[in-house]
C-alpha cells in the first residue's frame, strides 16, 4: 500500500476498536480495484461521536466511514440523508461523504446477514427465530429476516422498551408476521441469533440461556472477533449448528465499497 498526498481516506468508527475486520477486507479490495485509498480504524466513544462526525464533514479527502458498535443507531440523526432501509430500521452502518460535506447513511447489515446465512445453506424462510438484541444491527437483521419470510420472530433484549419498539415497527411493516418480546426459553426456535455485543469481551455473560439449546437448532452470531464466542462454544457442545459472524461482513463488502464510492 502506497499512501501519498492524493490518497482518499475512509474510516471505521467503533468502541472498542480492536475487533474490527472491515479494513482488512476492504483495503485489499480497493487495491484490486485500482483505488488510491485506505481504510483506517477510528476509536470513537459514544460521547465523542457527534463532535467527530461534525469534524469529518470538513475533511476533503474523506470518502466516508463504516459505523459499528455502539454507534449504529445514533449515527442516523447526525447525517443529512438516510436510505429507506436506514430510516425504517433506525440505524446505519455506512456513511458516505459527498463533495459538499453532506453525509448520507445506509444500513447493509440485514442484507449481509441473510445473504451470509444463505451462502452457508441456511434459508431462514419458514423458520421460527429468536433474536437477542434490539440495537442497530438487531433492527436491521429483524427487518431482513421478516423480508426473507421467517415464520415467527421473538425478540429478547435487556431493555424491554427497545424490544417493544422494534416489535411494534415490525408488526406495522409485516402485519402477518407473529412477533413477540416474551420469547420464553431458547427451545422451540429453529434459529437463535445473537445480535448484541455480548461475547465481544472476555467474561461477558451469554446473551441467551444456552442450557435449553438442542441439536437441530442453528445458533448464529454477528460478532467476528473472537471467531468462536462463548455462545457458539456452548451451542456446539449441545449439538447445534453454529454460524459465525464473519459471513455477514463478507456478504456486504461489495455493497459497502460501491456505496462508499471506492472506485478508481
UniProtKB/TrEMBL annotation:
<dbReference type="InterPro" id="IPR036291">
    <property type="entry name" value="NAD(P)-bd_dom_sf"/>
</dbReference>
<dbReference type="GO" id="GO:0004764">
    <property type="term" value="F:shikimate 3-dehydrogenase (NADP+) activity"/>
</dbReference>
<keyword id="KW-0028">Amino-acid biosynthesis</keyword>
<dbReference type="GO" id="GO:0019632">
    <property type="term" value="P:shikimate metabolic process"/>
</dbReference>
<dbReference type="GO" id="GO:0005829">
    <property type="term" value="C:cytosol"/>
</dbReference>
<dbReference type="Pfam" id="PF01488">
    <property type="entry name" value="Shikimate_DH"/>
</dbReference>
<keyword id="KW-0521">NADP</keyword>
<protein>
    <recommendedName>
        <fullName>shikimate dehydrogenase (NADP(+))</fullName>
        <ecNumber>1.1.1.25</ecNumber>
    </recommendedName>
</protein>
<dbReference type="InterPro" id="IPR022893">
    <property type="entry name" value="Shikimate_DH_fam"/>
</dbReference>
<feature type="domain" description="Quinate/shikimate 5-dehydrogenase/glutamyl-tRNA reductase">
    <location>
        <begin position="126"/>
        <end position="197"/>
    </location>
</feature>
<dbReference type="GO" id="GO:0009423">
    <property type="term" value="P:chorismate biosynthetic process"/>
</dbReference>
<dbReference type="InterPro" id="IPR006151">
    <property type="entry name" value="Shikm_DH/Glu-tRNA_Rdtase"/>
</dbReference>
<dbReference type="InterPro" id="IPR046346">
    <property type="entry name" value="Aminoacid_DH-like_N_sf"/>
</dbReference>
<dbReference type="InterPro" id="IPR013708">
    <property type="entry name" value="Shikimate_DH-bd_N"/>
</dbReference>
<comment type="pathway">
    <text>Metabolic intermediate biosynthesis; chorismate biosynthesis; chorismate from D-erythrose 4-phosphate and phosphoenolpyruvate: step 4/7.</text>
</comment>
<dbReference type="GO" id="GO:0009073">
    <property type="term" value="P:aromatic amino acid family biosynthetic process"/>
</dbReference>
<dbReference type="Pfam" id="PF08501">
    <property type="entry name" value="Shikimate_dh_N"/>
</dbReference>
<dbReference type="GO" id="GO:0050661">
    <property type="term" value="F:NADP binding"/>
</dbReference>
<keyword id="KW-0560">Oxidoreductase</keyword>
<keyword id="KW-0057">Aromatic amino acid biosynthesis</keyword>
<feature type="domain" description="Shikimate dehydrogenase substrate binding N-terminal">
    <location>
        <begin position="12"/>
        <end position="95"/>
    </location>
</feature>
Amino acid at each position: 500500500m502506497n499512501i501519498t498526498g492524493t490518497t482518499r481516506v475512509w474510516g471505521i468508527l467503533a468502541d472498542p476498536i480492536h475487533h474490527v475486520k472491515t479494513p482488512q477486507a476492504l483495503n485489499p479490495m480497493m487495491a484490486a480495484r485500482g483505488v488510491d485509498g485506505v481504510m483506517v480504524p477510528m476509536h470513537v466513544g459514544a460521547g465523542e461521536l457527534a463532535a467527530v462526525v461534525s469534524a469529518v464533514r470538513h475533511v476533503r479527502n474523506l470518502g466516508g466511514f463504516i459505523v459499528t458498535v455502539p454507534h449504529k443507531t445514533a449515527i442516523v440523526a447526525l447525517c443529512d440523508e438516510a436510505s429507506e432501509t436506514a430510516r425504517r430500521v433506525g440505524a446505519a452502518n455506512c456513511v458516505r461523504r459527498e463533495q459538499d460535506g453532506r453525509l448520507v447513511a445506509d444500513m447493509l447489515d440485514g442484507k449481509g446477514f441473510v445473504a451470509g446465512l444463505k451462502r452457508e445453506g441456511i434459508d431462514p424462510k419458514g423458520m421460527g427465530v429468536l433474536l437477542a438484541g434490539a440495537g442497530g444491527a438487531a433492527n436491521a437483521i429483524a427487518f431482513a429476516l421478516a423480508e426473507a419470510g421467517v415464520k415467527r420472530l421473538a425478540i429478547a433484549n435487556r431493555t424491554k422498551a427497545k424490544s417493544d419498539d422494534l416489535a411494534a415497527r415490525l408488526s406495522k411493516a409485516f402485519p402477518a408476521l407473529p412477533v413477540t418480546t416474551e420469547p420464553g426459553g431458547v427451545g422451540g426456535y429453529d434459529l437463535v441469533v445473537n445480535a448484541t455485543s455480548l461475547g465481544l469481551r472476555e467474561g461477558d455473560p451469554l446473551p441467551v440461556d444456552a442450557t435449553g439449546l438442542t441439536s437441530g437448532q442453528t445458533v448464529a452470531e454477528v460478532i467476528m472477533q473472537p471467531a468462536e464466542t462463548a455462545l457458539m462454544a456452548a451451542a456446539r457442545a449441545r449439538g447445534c449448528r453454529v454460524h459465525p459472524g464473519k459471513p455477514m461482513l463478507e456478504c456486504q463488502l461489495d455493497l459497502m465499497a460501491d456505496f462508499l464510492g471506492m472506485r478508481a
